[in-house]
Specification:
alpha/beta, Rossmann fold, Cytidine Deaminase, domain 2
């Protein structure tokens, strides 16, 4: 369902609080609200909000000042709010907190479990329990949404077919709360966005040997009030540098920030941009990752056993690679606390682990315990040899999505895992 649109006349005098993270989106929302006759109030997160809010009513709060933040959002009788802009995953051990934060601490700790979409849902529910109504950007600033059809250039038919493949991949990923963006090279799935974000996804791509298509859409079942896919000049600049031929975004559900500049960048690079029709709801959207994982059976190998949390993570990763198998033979995935951090489509294992060392979960501190499970899917034998020589302070164990093979390989793996203090699981 499309977000309800607010006509300009309905917005007259309407107070909208904007909880502003980084980037230009919050100020564009404020501009749209003001143009419709509403009254925008900016609550900027200190050290993260970086747009120029000159001419707007602005209150600055630290991320840990929850009481001050709630007071600012509810100032002058304001009861509607929008959450906009990016926020880095907070290290809870380094926050400067107020009494409001302490009072709600048990709730806050509960918010930090899961992937981005799950976290954002719980954050929205928290604000609504405090008497605020969380609105979507598409509801208060519909002019920022992409329209269906060609936006820039003339897309080729084979590129559009590749975009539809990308849509199917994102739909498949829905239960796992990962991947608003994917890349398709030469008609095959080549890369999947993890918690690193879209620009990092595009920045790590090697030069293409075929036509490259970038696809960014909502996940089926995603709450459209929160975390709508967003593209702007930086994203399209990154796409141009990665030699993308077509950027395909979902019409009515994707925000275009700094539209004129973004379109100019695409046009100058020869990249087409299209708004894809909204996806039909997928049957998997209502299925959670744990539901998908419940059918997976893994057996321990060697003396070290996985704890219950790591076993759940391993089953989620195996289920994920199984669901993706019809689209790509993925090499590996990283899962922590029931959240998929990253997926390796076809990178060498060493490169994959190196680029994911800094990826973290919501609420992770600098001194993380070993709580990450590496799931091995379709991987060459050489990767296994390389894998067991690598050290990663986060990884607690390894799970194999298929039987390991020979008795000799199994014994060698057990010995290496024991030396590295890793548990090993194998699919039955």
């Amino acid at each position: 369902m499309r977000p309800e649109r607010i006509a300009a006349g309905e917005a007259t005098g309407r107070k909208i609080a904007i909880l502003a993270g980084g980037g230009g989106l919050p100020v564009e929302i404020a501009r749209e609200v003001r143009q419709a006759g509403g009254i925008p109030r900016i609550v900027a997160i200190r050290g993260i909000a970086d747009a120029d809010y000159t001419g707007y009513d602005v209150t600055t709060v630290a991320l840990g000042q929850l009481g001050h933040m709630l007071d600012a959002l509810r100032h002058d009788g304001t009861r509607e709010m929008v959450i906009a802009g990016y926020v880095r995953r907070p290290d809870l051990t380094r926050l400067r907190i107020d009494f409001g934060f302490i009072r709600h601490l048990p709730t806050i700790l509960g918010l930090m479990r899961g992937g981005d979409d799950n976290v954002m849902r719980r954050i929205a529910a928290f604000f609504e329990r405090q008497g605020l109504t969380v609105k979507g950007t598409g509801e208060v600033a519909p002019g920022l949404l992409a329209a269906e059809g060609t936006i820039v250039g003339e897309p080729r038919d084979d590129d559009l077919a590749a975009a539809r493949l990308g849509q199917r991949a994102i739909a498949t990923l829905a239960p796992y709360d990962v991947g608003q963006g994917v890349v398709v090279d030469g008609g095959r799935l080549a890369a999947i966005e993890g918690v690193e974000g879209t620009d990092a996804l595009l920045g790590r791509l090697p030069p293409p040997d075929a036509r490259r298509v970038f696809v960014k859409t909502t996940k089926p079942g995603q709450d459209l009030r929160l975390d709508l896919p967003t593209v702007g000049p930086e994203t399209l600049r990154s796409a141009a540098a990665a030699r993308v031929c077509l950027a395909a975004i979902e019409a009515g559900r994707t925000l275009i920030v700094d539209r004129n500049e973004a379109c100019a960048i695409a046009e100058a690079s020869g990249m087409a941009v299209v708004g894809l029709p909204e996806q039909a709801p997928a049957t998997t959207a209502a299925t959670s990752a744990l539901d998908r994982a419940s059918a997976i059976e893994l057996a321990p190998i060697g003396a070290l056993r996985a704890d219950l949390g790591s076993l759940k993570d391993a089953c989620i990763g195996v289920a994920l690679l199984q669901d993706l198998s019809g689209l790509a033979a993925c090499r590996a995935a990283l899962v922590a606390r029931q959240h998929v951090l990253a997926i390796n489509v076809d990178e060498p294992m060493s490169k994959f682990l190196d680029r994911t060392r800094r990826l973290g979960q919501w609420g992770d501190g600098r001194k993380r315990k070993r709580n990450v499970t590496l799931i091995i899917g379709a991987t060459p034998r050489c990767d296994l040899d390389e894998l067991m020589t690598l050290t990663d302070e986060r990884i607690a164990g390894v799970a194999f999505a298929r039987p390991i093979g020979t008795a000799e390989a199994r014994e060698s793996l057990i010995e290496r895992a024991r030396n590295a203090n890793l548990f090993v699981l194998e699919r039955r």
